[in-house]
Amino acid sequence: MSDSPTVTDKTPQETEPARPDAPESAGTQDGGNTTDASEKAPEKAKVNWVAEIRGLALMLLGVLAFHSLVAKPFYIPSASMVPNLMVGDRLVVSKYPYGWSWVSASFHILKRGLWRIAPSTPAYGDIVIAVPPDRDEDYIKRVVALPGDRIAMVNGQIILNGVPVPQEVEPRIRIPLDQQVCANGFGANRPCLDDFAPYRVLLADGTQAYEPPTYRETLPNGASYLIIDHENQSLDNFDEITVPEDSVFLMGDNRDHSADSRAEAAPYGNGLGGPVPIANIGGRAEFITFSLDGSSSWNPLTWITGLRPERAWTSLRPELRERVAENASE
Asked: Omega before 300 cis (within 30°)?
């Protein structure tokens, strides 16, 4: 229908006032044709609920397919990847770099298996989403050993194929004090960064921060990133093992507080229980979209003050330096 105003095409003679005794519902003669002035307006079209539901279902299936095959947003709930990922970070994970498997589907609705479509092997230093062998939860860790590698750990330093992975002392990273809380594994919550309490400092502007011991680790392909290692604990040492084919060895960057491939899986622990089959890798972390520091609530106005603007759009791909193997041969 046209949105323009209705235009009357009658002549002046045809628009004279109706006679007083003429009923209001009488028709008006026009060339022998009579139009009923009391004709009812067209009825309002009924909603086709079947079509509406079908459209919503198709839209939902499209979103699920995109999340399963292309990319999916994730939220960081723990401090196991500090300093490179903070609690409250929201990031995008691409689902296709290593192919597709049972773990690709949203909500892990497929049966577990070792099959993969268009398989590919992760690279050293990639941050990936992994599922432990005993439960359908998503862990986020870093790839530190590939299929066929021999890996051991001595006093917190990775020994890869018999060669120590370089660890350089870096200036201590400064992590602002925030209000994020994390589960402690015993049904209670505590500040996520409470393990760094001994390194809490007061800054010149009156704010507080943590400055834990920081190192730079560089893997054989040149992938380089920061780690935090401030305690002597049982996971700092393990004997050499060989990573099986189609598996990778994963660690968190917060080395003393990460349930990763070094830690037992259930029922003895909450780790990954050793090398992880690549079929259990759900994707690769690409970049941070935005981050909240824990001071925000359901009130949207608090999201503005709770934003960490400096973290938005941060790439999660590792910096690539000179290859360690090339350095060793020089």
From this structure: no
Non-local CB neighbours of 321 within 8 Å, separated by 6+ positions: 218, 222, 224
pLDDT digit string, tens, across residues 36-69: 545 566 667 788 999 999 999 999 999 999 999 9
Amino acid identity for residue 206 in this structure: G
Q: Which of 221, 284, 281, 278 is nearest to 244 (CA)?
A: 278
In whole angstroms, what is the distance from residue 313 CA to residue 316 CA? Answer: 9
Q: What is the pLDDT of residues 183-219, one digit of tens each?
A: 876 678 899 999 999 999 999 999 999 999 999 999 9
94's CB contacts (< 8 A; 6+ apart) are 70, 71, 283, 284, 286
pTM beyond 0.85: the answer is no
Would you put residue 11 in left (φ > 0), alpha (ψ -120 to 50) or beta? beta
For residue 110, count other CB atoms closer than 10 A to its CB.
14
Distance CA 86, CA 75 (A): 10
